Amino acid sequence: MSICATAALLPVGGAVAQTVTPFSFGLWGDLPYAKNNDGPKMKRLIDHMNAADIAFSVFDGDTKDGSSECTDASYRDTVAMFESLKRPMIYVPGDNEWTDCHRLNNGGYDNLERLAHIRKTMFATNQSFGQTKLTLEQQGKPGEKFSENTRLLHNGILFIGLNIPGSNNNKVLDEKDCTNKSARKAEQCAADNAEYEERDAANIAWMKEAFAAAKAKKLPGLVITIQADLGFDLPETEGKDERKAPGFDGYDRFIDALVAETRAYDGQVLLVHGDTHFFKVDKPFINQANLIPNLTRVETFGSPNAHWVRVDVNPASPELFVVHPVIVPGN
Using CB atoms within 10 A of its CB, is residue 246 exposed (0-12), middle (13-18) or buried (19+)? Predict the structure, then answer.
C-alpha cells in the first residue's frame, strides 16, 4: 500500500500558507547492537511502535554496532527489521553502516563500496520502508549518488533526511587517522576526503532547498534528521569553542549553513540525530552564536536503551513540536 506524499510536488514558488493538522511521528536509532544483546528487545520495541498512534517513524542511523562486520547479510537483516513496521519508516544512514566499515573489526571493507551498496539496496526506489509506504523525494536518482537524501511534506511540515554520519562525516584528518585499526591505504583515504567534499556540498544544497521551499510555502516547521552528534555536548568553556577541535571539523560548513538558514526562517526547526545514545532535548549552539530560539535539538535513545521518541505536531503550541520520550516496558 502506498501513500503518496506531496514532497515531489514542492515547487519553491508560491506563497500560499500550508495548513498544519495535528499528527505524531516516531524517532529511533542506534539499534540493534549485537554486542549489547539487543536482539530480544527489538520485538518489544517494534510491537510498541506498531501499537502507537503515529503517522510514520524516522530511523536516524546505526543499524548495527561499531565492532561488527559490514556484511551484505547485515543490511538484509536491517531491511527485514524495517519492513516489520506497520507504518511507514524513513531511514537515514549512520557511520556504522558505511563510514567505519574500513576498520579491521568491521571486516576491512572499502567503505565507499559499502555506501554504494546501501544506495543500491536500500534506496533503490522512492518508497519508504514499512508495510505501508510513503513516496519520498530523493536528491539523487534511485539507487545512485545522494539517493539517501530524502524529502517529505506531511500535513504542512517538511521533513528532510541527510547523510551526515559520525566519524567526522567521513573526513580523514591525517595519515594516523587514515590507517589506525584500518585496512585503508592512502589512496582510499584521499577518495574518502573527495567523497566527503562532494557529499557535504550536496547535503548543504539539499538543506538550503528545503528552507527555501519552507519559506516560500510559509510552512511553520522543518524537521532535519542526520545521524551524527555534531559535537553539541563537548565542554563549553568561556572564550573557547571545543567543538572546533580536530575530529569535528567535518561538520563545520553544515553547521554554519544550518545556523544561517534557521535564523532567516520564521518557523520552528527540529534537528534530530543519534550517534551518542542519550535522549536529549535542548537548544544547541550556545557558544557559537548565543541561543537560536527556533532551533531545537532532539537526540534519540540508542543501545542498550531500546526505546523511542514520539513527537506531537501541535499547531497551537508556540514550539510546534512537542517531544516525549517513550519507554518500552521490559527493555
Answer: exposed
